[in-house]
């Protein structure tokens, strides 16, 4: 008899839930899955590091998340910030030539214009006029000595009866009779006369010719000026009566008190225009050239334009050491003065710390990308990740304003590169 038994049938695509595969088969499956994970991870690491990042050795990898930007051609400008101080500049002593006791001083910060009183000495005003030549002599009508027809002795006695010849250069005289005569006024001349007469006319006193001669007409105008000031009408301007400056001035810190004698530092002044002074490092002051345009950030955050007008020629030693670089000492500095043409742009601010921005280096018509687009290559250097996931090696140049100059055989204008997140 044939042996019989029970037969269980299964569909081809099903398997009993309680049926387990042989132990050996299950172990092999687990090992294969683990190996697959390792291979995928290794490929991802190679792509991220950019191994073989040159164009000829580019490595493709799944693109990473991040924005895509084009390589552009532009001009890059390197800008550097330095600290500065807003103010009216260095205070300079006024060249007061009057002698006596100081009887009145203006307030610090006051503005003095042409014809105004700077100070009073022995209760006599010392006035401001505009000009570049300092007052070095009295200005007025002078008298030329008269020589008598018969000559005169050193004592002034006439030498009658001698028949002495008159001087070879006699001056005009009036009167009759030998040994008598009167002095005739003769004008003094010079550029200082022209400078003074220009100021006198600007103050509204006319009736004379503005030239290099101090004439009777000039003296009459001076008398009218003196009368308006409450002074004795002498028609002569003393050497200590006026002080010249290039324009109106701002009074600085007084160097004397009321009642003290006039000295060299009795009164100081500055210009009335606000400016910035930068103590620039002597070793890195190549940017400080007269006429260089700079940007100035004021304490309130507002930006204004400035221009370098002067650079000191003598370096100041740093605090706490010498310019040779003693231990603990900073770098020696040069004072750089910067003017602000638009004074209204500064507002009412008179002083305070500011930031000065100047252009260091500049490159024109170069390829550039945002600095964030650079990636470090495993073999060294930098590269860019293309839109399709390749890595291209590049050479970097100037970094400026968040962008960087790039070059290389694999980079071109308009190429899309990725900024990694």
From TrEMBL:
Gene3D superfamilies linked: PGBD-like superfamily/PGBD (1.10.101.10)
Parts of the chain that traverse the membrane: 31-52
Region (Disordered): 1-25, 148-186
Span of domain Peptidoglycan binding-like: 190-238
Keyword annotations: Coiled coil, Membrane, Transmembrane, Transmembrane helix
Keyword field contains Transmembrane: yes
CC annotations in GO: cell envelope
Keyword Signal: no
UniProt cross-references to InterPro entries, sorted A to Z: Peptidoglycan-bd-like, PGBD-like_sf, PGBDSf, UPF0194_transport
UniProt-annotated location(s): Cell envelope
Main location: other
Domain of life where this protein originates: Bacteria
Pfam family, one: PG_binding_1
Protein name: Peptidoglycan-binding protein
